[in-house]
Design a protein that fits this description.
Blueprint (H helix, E strand, L loop, with lengths): L1 H36 L6 E12 L3 E9 L5 E10 L3 E10 L2 E11 L8 E2 L5 E2 L2 E2 L9 H15 L10 E6 L12 E7 L4 E5 L1
Antiparallel strand pairs: 1-2, 1-10, 2-3, 4-5, 4-9, 5-6, 7-8, 10-11
Length: 198
């Protein structure tokens, strides 16, 4: 009876190791496909634009619109936030010699980043980050970005080799985002995120 229990336990452990090994190999293949095709990603991307509707001494009202790599509007929302300084947070994942930036959160000087507006669902289309979608996207690049996006939005970032946050924000003492102006957030695959006034 004890011998049978050990045999069963051994088979279960062996099966678990085989499944885990298969998952790791599958993950490595996906990463390799992404690395092989990352050069096909546009060097400059505009994932979102925003407009400040109103700014008071204690709040900011804004509209945010999300765009695909083909410059088509994906989604939008309007929100009033407590605070005076607006910040956009991105998760940046290095892939080979490029950087892929995922819009992550919006928050203010009066909100903790953890309490900010999470942005992933606004551009999540069938588990793919639609801000990188174009009608002629390479299949391997599509699948690779989809896989990385799943890890980013579910917080499984430790399974990626490297990643880091990048924040762009409005500082009241310097040039501030002005009401009624449209601002474009531009990400660069060679590194860097900037906000340009239209």
């Amino acid at each position: 009876m004890i011998k049978n229990s050990y045999s069963l336990w051994f088979v279960m452990v062996l099966t678990g190791l085989l499944v885990m090994s298969s998952c790791i190999q599958n993950q490595e293949k996906k990463i390799k496909k992404l690395e092989d095709n990352i050069a096909l990603l546009k060097e400059k991307n505009i994932p979102l634009k925003f407009k400040i509707i109103e700014k008071t001494n204690d709040s900011i009202s804004l509209v945010v619109k999300f765009y695909s790599a083909d410059s088509k509007e994906i989604n939008k929302f309007e929100q009033k936030l407590h605070g005076q300084e607006l910040s956009f947070d991105f998760y940046v994942v290095p892939v080979k010699d490029r950087y892929v930036a995922f819009p992550a959160k919006i928050f203010t000087d009066k909100m903790a980043a953890d309490d900010g507006i999470v942005l992933y669902d606004y551009y999540n289309q069938e588990d793919y980050p639609a801000v990188f979608y174009s009608k002629d996207i390479n299949t391997d690049l599509y699948e690779g970005l989809k896989d990385v996006f799943q890890k980013v939005k579910t917080g499984q970032l430790d399974s990626l080799n490297e990643h880091f946050g990048n924040m762009v924000h409005d500082i009241k003492e310097f040039k501030s985002f002005l009401p009624e102006n449209v601002y474009t957030v531009v990400t660069h695959t060679k590194g860097g995120i900037e906000i340009i006034e239209e």
